[in-house]
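As promised in the previous annual report, we have extended the structural survey to additional targets. Below is the entry for ATPase WRNIP1.
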Amino acid sequence: MSSVVCPVCENFVPQSSINRHLDNNCKDAFISGEESSHHSSQESNQKTSEFFLPVSSKKRLAQPVRNLQSTSTPLHEIQGNYESAVKKFKSIDALEEAKPLPEKIRPSRLDQYFGQEELVGPQGILRHLIESDQCPSMILWGPSGCGKTTLARIVAQNTSAQFKELSATTHGVNDCKKAFEDAKNLLQLTGKRTVIFMDEIHRFNKAQQDVFLPYVERGIITLIGATTENPSFKVNNALISRCRVFFLKKLSTSNIILILDRALSIYFPNSERPSGLDEAMIQHIAEFADGDGRIGLTLLETGLSALSNPNNRITPNELKNALKRTHFVYDRAGDMHYDTISAFHKSVRGSDANAALYYLARMLESGDALFVARRMVVIASEDADNNALPLAVAAHTAVTQIGMPEAEIILAHCAVYLAEAPKSTRTYMAYRRAQSALRNEPDAASAPIPMHLRNAPTKLMKSLGYSEGYKYNPDYLNGKVKQEYLPTELRTRKFLDVSGDLLIDTVLDEHTLN
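The corresponding structure token record, generated without further manual editing, is:
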């Protein structure tokens, strides 16, 4: 009869009796007589063969061996080991219980995954690659909570390769190198591939991302990177060229409703849902999630906790009022930052004050007041109203001296004024022409300054003709006098008010709008 080592008391126990042994708190901590005779037989055979062993082996065998037949473990030690094991299992349960709802119900199969139908739907290319276990190196790009990490873990469940998960927030380049070497050794010894999932890959700078290149290029690893930022700006171009980029869209409200319904079916498998979580409440939570499945599940978990508290029960209406928006999808260093300021600028340029106020509020709610004020100073120079620039500078000063939230109305005042002011880019276009001439025309940057325009602070410079022939404008009627100011090589050039420029347009073109 075979024996196994008890994980609690570490004694040998017949395999058929291990469950009963554990149930009895390890009190029957002795091996059977049959096992003892078998052990004695083994010991006799061992002595017979000792003669043929080297001296070092004889010394090792001469060490005392624990007599399992006669040695017993004191009861208090058995109980202590048992309690220690129970605590260990309880701690594992506690870790599992502490997981937030999004982690507890994370899908492990494609039929549990909602959203991204173009990629993982019945005809989706990514579904085909996952099911055939042929996933190439890829970058999953999409907003927070759209299912990037979940999709990578579904790949882990469906691949025959070894799967290793890393995160740029907690792992460094040395961790990556170790994982790559392990993957290389595994491939050489067993022929088994390794898939490495690098979450938040954009947190590595481009120099750090270079560590992936040789291993991806040689096929030692299959890389799956996840990022919320535009890979064109945040991921090494050489790495992008070796990976397929898949864009994951923000989840629709209907997608999030399906996710919430699945969570409730797991949470209440054999019982009715709380009355406060009806279809209207689920719809409300899904809309508040704003395309982020993780936020939707977190709001649901908040609702479940509130409704299940026997000491402080709240009504569905109170729950609905409690689930106010506390998050704004805006990152001052990410794509959303540049997309939002671009939309704000174009709304002001298009004289749409309503849209300008919306984008202004969106940025201010995320705490970006000073940046907005600086941008409005620049925008003011696209207005034909010369009062726009002083107003924008004053608004910037107000933000720095007064601060938020009092400066909100000042910025709103400035944004509306800029949007409603007549527009002109004549100065902007003229400056770009002058700049282009300097950069692209060989003689423009080195053209000699006309002698009469040069300053002559010394006698030597005056003797050389500096400032000679200059006409001082205040000496003439209305300060106007005919005089050449451009270098000789550029005297025929026109930078401002070139034919075709739109000088001032104070009325919207209704035909263009239609």
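Strands lie at 3-5, 12-14, 138-141, 162-167, 194-199, 221-227, 244-247. Residues 31-71, 503-514 have pLDDT under 50 and may be disordered. These points will be discussed at the next consortium meeting with the crystallography subgroup.
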